[in-house]
Target: Oxidoreductase
Amino acid sequence: MVEASAETATARRLTFEVPTWPGNDAGAHVDLRLTAPDGYQASRSYSIASSGSGTRLTLVVAEVADGEVSPYLVRDLAVGDEVELQGPLGRYFIWRPDDPAHAGPVQLIGGGSGVVPLIPMAAANEGAERPVEFRLLYSLRTGADAFFGAELAGFERTRVDVVRTRESDGARPAGRLTQDEFAEATIPAAQSPALFVCGPTPFVETVAAWAVSLGHAASAIRTERFGGG
Ligand SMILES: Cc1cc2nc3c(=O)[nH]c(=O)nc-3n(C[C@H](O)[C@H](O)[C@H](O)COP(=O)(O)OP(=O)(O)OC[C@H]3O[C@@H](n4cnc5c(N)ncnc54)[C@H](O)[C@@H]3O)c2cc1C
Model:
């Protein structure tokens, strides 16, 4: 690891230099493996917050209380430490700018750390020769839990809607995203957007079911589940 910084009070941004890295599409992930001095190994998947052809990749890891791997990555891994990374992985949950297959509008929906793979998609569209309509709906607990504050503020071609579940933002009371809010904030099914939904498993399942009930084709909905109950 070559750089680390606090993303929030409970999440950390980690940058790795991988000389053999082949580059990666926006949305891909890696499998990260840790090996303890006694040989015990643990492996977890992490989305790549960066994309393109460079040899550096960035992850953002949220600490899961009582977790085996994430507390170590958030609290203990030091600059200069090495981990094993396998990837890039994932051919399905990716978006490529200027690819004719990805020429339609894109609706991103992230819950908590599920926003990680969505950010490089929006960033890639910001820099694309032929940008398409992009919207991001981001559900998080409180304003202090927001990842990528600077990136979100800098997007000029992405409409960003944020829903806070545990505090009011002044205009909206605290509470989970509702189906009505989802319908209001997202690109209508009539425009046939590609939907990328990522986050805790219950969040992803709820949102995907709403999308289908609002008329989106199941084949247009791509999901990535981070686990959790
Ligand atoms: C494709 C993919 C990409 C992912 N990308 C990211 C990412 O970019 N950033 C990130 O922080 N995490 C990401 N995750 C989740 C990550 O792989 C781990 O599951 C997470 O870091 C917890 O690992 P742990 O070893 O700390 O917890 P574990 O020891 O595995 O689990 C401890 C307890 O927490 C529960 N739990 C496990 N995962 C979660 C979770 N995500 N939320 C809530 N509870 C959970 C378990 O059910 C268990 O009860 C991704 C997962 C997948 C499958």
